[in-house]
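Dienelactone hydrolase domain-containing protein (Caenorhabditis brenneri), 242 aa
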Amino acid sequence: MAVTTKVIDYKDSEGTTFEGVVYIPENAKNVPAVLVFPAFRGITVFEKDRGHQLAELGYFAFVADVYGKGVRPTERAEAFATMSPLVSNRVDKLKPRLFAALDSLKTFSEVNQSNIAAIGYCFGGLCVLDLARYNAGLKAVVSFHGTLKPIPDLPLDKINGTSVQVHHGDADFHIGKDQVDGFHEEMRTRDADFVFVSHAKAVHAFTEPEADSFNAPGIGYNEKAATRSWKATLGLFREVFV
């Protein structure tokens, strides 16, 4: 299927400008849409490829920019320094950026407003789980090797109408057992429709083919886990998009 790619600017409630990338399937009209939230480096080729793949399957894809236009960390330390203030203040700093992407997506006439999902990798996994926690009206969210910690001081209200799917590396010591157990308890308290998959022998960043080149402890690509988690994601979309 032919895909049209567009780079777009959009702003959050604080006036910060962001630069996202949209992928529009050929002859798209009232089609389901998927927000893609990047890992800690921000938008890279990996997320762009994922957006293109989704559009080839007939979904409108929007690769979100959480850092801001022109903010593209190239070094690991720089990326963590950019991400840390957002993770430290998820309500005041991160939340407006998440909803800015969602609101921008909704402005496209090709999108079926009732059929929107979000996927995210690493830091992006935290982003999509937060959208579920905020009851943002999404049909589904899928987190890949994402941070699982709840939002501090946010009431554990019921998650309504959003199916939550989490893919976790069973050997991922960056997302420890305390987070895993805490997440399960949070989802139970929120009466959420959730699926949690632990992928054997997979470590952090297991979906990213470039992960081995990071040369960081506990980070690496796992082809089997990457393939299985993606198939499960597409299966969830087929289930929830009606």
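The chain has one domain: 3-240. The chain has a mean pLDDT of 97. ok done for today
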